[in-house]
């Protein structure tokens, strides 16, 4: 069978990224240009700055991805692009660039859902991994437990009612004066702290697989405020360790509960928060204890990148997904029902 080459573009948040994938699993190039240093100055992503930086970098990033893969547009079978969800101004840059490429080179355009891409980062790392499996997707904007029934058939069985896990990390870190992205900073400090030092609350929800992180976040903010009112010092490492451990317990417990209830043996984790060292350790221990097969991406593929979009784009392409050149970008869209022609 002829090899299929996908050129993938990702610009949904603060990474300008392009990659070339061979047959969905082999990464020929993966160029990621992070804007983090710029956004750090403001304590978080500034959407307008992100869009403007994408506009400046997208052309050279795509060019670099093609060069590193040692191919030209003539060799490309389709262009895959993150079209939802994300920052709208950022998404539009990638989508519009991909549309122009498809128009000029007469290539099929394949829209990709960003969270489906995160799941697919595991296909790159584990060549034999195939659906069905259960997956925890924990990123800056989303926290979902999803049944991945096939490469293109997803069912959400749990999600956050308020803050996403990554968002809680970012907000707590900001309140403690730590730098963006908060998850990375908290992860570092947590390694030096005592996870039992602070007793923090877990939510009691009437649905088994849903999450809620805003109460926990507020509890940390209250701890900080109370200490500052009394003129006391908070042990930041201890508070980070206690907060991180509570988030990890919530994510781990719900994920394995769902895996047991729905009879999945394969458990997969994806999204920026899957880089968390405490979460990775806790998941490994629990998977070993309960006898599950556990998969999570290498650190290089946990955050936003275009290789994961190319991998998912390949499977969307095989299933016949194509978009017209009138394709728009969408700030929100469910991972379940994709509608690229609203
Ligand atoms: O998937 P991602 O790169 O972008 C989105 O699609 O949102 O996720 C970014 C999120 C941020 O909230 C960041 O703080 C979090 O992932 N994150 C982490 C770690 N590294 C990144 N959270 C906890 N521990 C980490 N080591
Ligand atoms: Zn992401």
Overview features:
342 residues, alpha/beta, Nucleotidyltransferase, domain 5, 2 domains, 5-stranded mixed β-sheet, 11 helices, 10 strands, binds 5'-O-[(R)-(carboxyoxy)(hydroxy)phosphoryl]adenosine, binds zinc ion
Give a brief description.
By secondary structure, this protein is α/β, with parallel strands linked by helices.
Characterization of this structure:
The mean pLDDT is 97. The chain has 11 helices and 10 strands. The strands form 2 sheets. A 5-stranded mixed β-sheet has the order 3-2-1-4-5, sandwiched between helices. 44% of the residues lie in helices and 19% in strands. A hairpin with a 3-residue loop joins strand 2 and strand 3. The protein is of the alpha/beta class. Helix 2 packs parallel to helix 3 (88-105). It folds into 2 domains: 5-120 and 302-318, 2-Layer Sandwich (Nucleotidyltransferase, domain 5); 130-300, 2-Layer Sandwich (Nucleotidyltransferase, domain 5), CATH 3.30.420. Zinc ion binds next to helix 4. Residues 114, 118, 139, 272, 304 line the site of zinc ion.
Give me the CATH architecture of the largest domain, please.
Answer: 2-Layer Sandwich
CATH class of the largest domain: Alpha Beta
End-to-end Cα distance: 35 Å
Global morphology: globular
Structural class, by secondary structure, is alpha/beta
Largest sheet properties: 5 strands, mixed
| Number of helices, where a helix is a run of at least 4 consecutive DSSP H or I residues | 11
List the helices and strands and how they pair.
Blueprint: E1 5-10, E2 15-22, E3 26-34, H1 36-40, H2 47-68, E4 78-84, H3 88-105, E5 109-113, H4 114-125, E6 133-138, E7 143-150, E8 153-159, H5 165-175, H6 182-190, H7 214-229, H8 236-261, E9 266-270, H9 277-290, E10 293-295, H10 299-302, H11 307-318
Parallel strand pairs: 1-4, 4-5, 6-9, 9-10
Antiparallel strand pairs: 1-2, 2-3, 6-7, 7-8
Helix pairs in contact: 2-3, 4-11, 5-6, 5-7, 6-8, 8-9
The structure holds 5'-O-[(R)-(carboxyoxy)(hydroxy)phosphoryl]adenosine and zinc ion.
């Amino acid at each position: 069978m002829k090899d299929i080459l996908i050129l993938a573009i990702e610009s949904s948040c603060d990474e300008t990224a392009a990659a070339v994938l061979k047959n969905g699993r082999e990464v020929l190039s993966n160029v990621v240009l992070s804007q983090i240093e710029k956004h750090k100055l403001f304590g978080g992503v500034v959407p307008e700055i992100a869009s403007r930086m994408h506009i400046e970098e997208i052309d050279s990033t795509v060019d670099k991805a093609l060069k590193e893969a040692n191919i030209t547009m003539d060799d490309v079978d389709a262009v895959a692009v993150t079209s939802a969800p994300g920052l709208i101004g950022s998404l539009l840059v990638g989508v519009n660039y991909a549309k122009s490429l498809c128009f000029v080179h007469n290539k099929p355009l394949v829209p990709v859902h960003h969270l489906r891409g995160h799941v697919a980062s595991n296909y790159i790392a584990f060549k034999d991994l195939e659906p069905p499996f259960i997956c925890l997707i924990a990123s800056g904007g989303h926290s979902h437990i999803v049944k991945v029934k096939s490469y293109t058939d997803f069912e959400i069985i749990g999600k956050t009612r308020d803050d996403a896990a990554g968002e809680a990390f970012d907000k707590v870190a900001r309140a403690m004066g730590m730098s963006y992205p908060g998850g990375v900073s908290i992860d570092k400090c947590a390694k030096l702290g005592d996870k039992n030092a602070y007793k923090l609350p877990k939510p009691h929800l009437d649905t088994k697989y849903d999450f809620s992180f805003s109460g926990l976040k507020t509890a940390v903010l209250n701890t900080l405020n109370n200490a500052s009112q009394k003129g006391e010092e908070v042990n930041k490492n201890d508070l980070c360790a206690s907060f991180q451990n509570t988030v990890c317990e919530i994510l781990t417990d719900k994920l394995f509960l769902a895996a047991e209830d729905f009879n999945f043996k394969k458990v997969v984790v994806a999204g920026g928060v899957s880089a968390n060292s405490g979460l990775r350790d806790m998941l490994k221990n629990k998977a070993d204890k309960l006898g599950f097969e556990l998969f999570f991406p290498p650190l290089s593929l946990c955050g936003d990148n275009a290789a994961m979009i190319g991998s998912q784009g390949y499977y969307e392409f095989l299933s016949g997904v194509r978009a017209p050149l009138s394709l728009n970008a969408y700030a929100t869209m469910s991972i379940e029902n994709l509608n690229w022609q609203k």
